[in-house]
Amino acid sequence: MEHKNDFLKYLVTNVQDEKWGMICTTVGFQNVAPHTPYPLSAHPTDYNFTKNGRVLDEYQLIYITEGEGSFRSASCETQRIEAGTILLLFPGERHLYYPDPETGWKEMWVGFRGTQAKTMIEHFFSREQPLLRVGVRESIVSLYQEIMGHAENDVRGYQQVIAGAIAHLLGRIYYNRINFTHRGNKNLDKINQAQLLLRENISTRISPAEIAARLSMSYSLLRNLFKQITGVSMSSYQQHLKLNLAKELLTNSTKNISEIAYETGFESVSRFCCFFRQHMQVTATEFRAKNSILHKRR
User: Fold this and answer.
1) How far apart are CA 102 and CA 20, in angstroms?
2) Can you give the three-state secondary structure of 201-268, one letter per residue?
3) What is the pLDDT of residues 185-233, one digit of tens each?
4) Does the predicted TM-score (pTM) go above 0.70?
5) How far apart are alpha carbons 236 and 113 in whole angstroms?
6) Which of 16, 19, 124, 133 is 20 to 30 A from residue 221's alpha carbon, by CA?
7) What is d(CA 6, CA 106) in angstroms, rounded to the nearest whole number?
């Protein structure tokens, strides 16, 4: 998936998709700057708020990764939202949420419905507790990005693959909610924020020292904690992200090698090609010829 400041998509489904038991209706993310009117006007009318909130006919999971705000619904009194919170919206439930004008926020969302979705949510979540405080988790962000990637490519069977990713996301949210260690382990949350910053800045070549500064930590402390908690160095983790993004773009996009090299943060095509061959034992061109979904459809 391309790295942009904002992304949103509303999906078309058919009768065959409905039979799967879970279909995705919308997915996206947006960065809401401080003092920006909310919601942004790019959404369809049915998804925008009125002064009394809104009512949807689907479930939604909205993940706030930065910033603060407020939430209320028909079953839940007004509550404060902090970074690391997922808002679970229920069909037929009037709700209203918005970022604090002083902080703005970053949000990711996915909307879905179906019999399988209803069974999973009604048994493990409740309308009375729609704020799921899971912390800033790179593993959760990566699932949202996986869903966005499948939705953007829009190839046959993508709804079924997305349904699996949503089920995984719900399981991950449930796991993190009942095992939430954010309040008792600030170091763990700092490392998750570092992972997220590395993922968000693949193409900008952000350095570990810059990340440490943004997290108000010394570089040596961050480096040591990162290795201790994740088991790999920050540079190795960064290379892992670059390689995964390169493989995704070679498989699911028509971008040329130069574009992919730029998007994965390399200064030159030759450096990217050497990096890819070193890690995959084949050239980027050979990998694309063997694995590209678009190539196989032609």
Assistant:
1) 43
2) CHHHCCCHHHHHHHCCCCHHHHHHHHHHHHCCCHHHHHHHHHHHHHHHHHHHCCCCHHHHHHHCCCCC
3) 677 778 888 988 898 888 887 888 999 998 899 999 999 888 888 888 9
4) no
5) 38
6) 133
7) 10
